[in-house]
Amino acid sequence: MFKFGFSENKQDEVKGEDTKKSTLNWIPASKVEVSELELQIENRYEPNDYRECLLFPDCKLKLIQHEKALHDLQKYNCTNILEAESQHSDRIPAKYEGGLKIWECSYDLGQYLLKNIEFQDKFVLDLGCGTGIIGLIALLKNSIVHFQDYNVEVIKTVTIPNVLLNFEDRESVLNRCQFFCGDWESFTKLRDSNNGDEFVEYDLIFTSETIYDPDNHKKLYEVFKRRLKANGIGFIAGKSYYFGVGGGMWQFQNLIEEDAIFDVEIVWRNTEGLQREILKITRKQQS
Fold first, then answer.
1. 140: nearest Cα among 172, 122, 108, 166
2. Is 81 exposed, middle or buried (0-12, 13-18, 19+ CB in 10 A)?
3. How many angstroms separate the CA atoms of 234 and 261, rounded?
4. Spatial contact of 233 and 281, defined as CB atoms under 8 Å apart
5. CA distances for 43 relative to 65, 155, 240, angstroms
6. How far apart, in Å, do the first and last CA atoms of the chain sit?
7. Is the dihedral of CA 31, 238, 61, 91 positive or negative?
8. What single-letter DSSP state applies at residue 183?
9. pLDDT in tens, 195-209
10. Per DSSP, what are the bridge partners of residue 178?
């Protein structure tokens, strides 16, 4: 049975739900720049700091080791994530949202996309990207990709290094991607200073294992609603229910269907264990 890893203290916080909701301070969204030091990847990482993984058929990715990420977080005293790790917790609401782990549905989504999606020259948002494996697939298939995760520490310690490790021409690949951190509600309101201060719209928006908390469903949905192009496609991968948190796929699907802006289709579902699904959403055609 899948269950988010909460410490005993965290279980107590979940029980005090009303108090928790009133005191959460979400981190505002912002763009994350890549420094010259971060570009010098050979000087920052030894070969045993990362591993090469065949996560998907015919798709090998170099990924930073979890231990290396934790070492860097300790080095820079990133207290929010270190607090979660010390409690063996997958998340602390509004502090850390699980970005260091590769969650199960990300494998489902990656395999589905590789079989079914044409990435060439698409403008892609990897929403709640964590380690960035879905966005990396798109980059390797010649898309332009924006990576977004809640914690800037995740972006800095795993997402950006993972991108740089997988491309030899690193300055060139950085011309095809950008990085963002912070809360989805404020991310939706960010404008592109490089494009006449306009809102960015995407051909494809992917998100995996981000529907665990029903309190965040509306602002997650707003990203699709406001940032997906008229002919764009969104994909949401998740579990039917997240024990210990309360969210699930059916709740998020109901939210989309009640708004009546998108057509919703279940394009993949597993056949064993806790049910996992992939939703595809497209804007309804105007009659």
1. 166
2. buried
3. 13
4. yes
5. 16, 19, 43
6. 44
7. positive
8. -
9. 666 889 999 999 999
10. 146
Q: The pTM is what?
A: 0.91
Closest by Cα among 278, 279, 284, 280 to 262: 284
Nearest Cα residue to 249 out of 229, 270, 228, 276: 276
Residue with tokens 């090998």: 60
Q: How far apart are CA 234 and CA 262, in angstroms?
A: 10
SS (H, E, C) 234-250: EEEEEECCCECCCCCHH
Average pLDDT for the chain? 91
Nearest in space to 256 (alpha carbons), one of 226, 225, 228: 225
CB atoms within 10 A of CB 24: 11
Q: Which amino acid is at 156?
A: K
**Confidence class of residue 5 from pLDDT cuts 50, 70 and 90?**
low
Cα-atom radius of gyration of the chain, to the nearest Å?
18
Amino acid at 49: D
How many Å apart are CA 276 and CA 210, to the nearest integer? 13
φ/ψ of 263, rounded to 5, equals: -80, 140
The first and second tokens of residue 263, run together, are 């057509």
CA-to-CA separations, 210 to 43, 72, 156, 214, 254, in angstroms, rounded:
34, 25, 20, 10, 16
